[in-house]
From TrEMBL:
TM ranges: none
Protein's name in the database: Rho GDP-dissociation inhibitor
Pfam families cross-referenced by the UniProt entry: Rho_GDI
Cited function: Regulates the GDP/GTP exchange reaction of the Rho proteins by inhibiting the dissociation of GDP from them, and the subsequent binding of GTP to them.
Cell compartment(s), UniProt: Cytoplasm
One MF term in the entry's GO annotations: Rho GDP-dissociation inhibitor activity
InterPro entries named among the record's database cross-references: Ig_E-set, Rho_GDI, RhoGDI_dom_sf
A GO-annotated cellular component: cytosol
Major place of residence: cytoplasm
Species, as recorded: Coprinopsis cinerea (strain Okayama-7 / 130 / ATCC MYA-4618 / FGSC 9003)
GO biological process: Rho protein signal transduction
Classification of source organism: Eukaryota, Fungi, Dikarya, Basidiomycota, Agaricomycotina
Amino acid sequence: MSSDNIEDELKPSFTPGKSILAVYCRSDGYKPGAPPKSAEEYAKLDAEDESLARWKASLGIVPGATSGDTSGPKVTVLTLELVSPTLPPGKKIAFNLADPNAIASLKKTPVVIKEGVEYNVRITFKVNHSIISGVRYIQVVKRSGIKVDKLEQMLGSYGPNPTGEPYTKNFEPEESPSGMIARSGSYSVRSRVVDDDGEVYADWEWSFKLAKEWE
């Protein structure tokens, strides 16, 4: 599979309209190619508008919310977790995406998922600086090199959390496949976190296999 085909598969299957945040952030003298304003600058815009100030504060866009080096990545994706009410007590399936060694092992060691159960993806990430808009999670699943599924979920638009804490997003529940054919072999997955502008914040590969029970 060529890299061009992979990139095509990871493109959004829909083109959402710009969020209110994106429109607002780009309306104040925005010119294509111009560097975006910082979260601090946007926090100070229209400061006299109380309702707008409250809305921005709910997104973490407040004066003094950011400090320090802004040359690093806007977003750090920390974990991806598979959550299911059918998981045995104490069992947790979570990927540490902040650890390069852990990411490298994901593709080699398939995760075991019980067939025919409800589960959902939970992602935890930290906004380090600036404003992010229209961020989404895209997941392409293949079996023997053939695409069998694509998951696409919106995270939304955010500013840095005033408390410095990460954000957590729970996606809509899905049901894992079932049956003897579904259980045979393993599935490869390519996951990506990307925003409206095509900026990629995380991109990794992992694998899973289906079984009659959780392991």
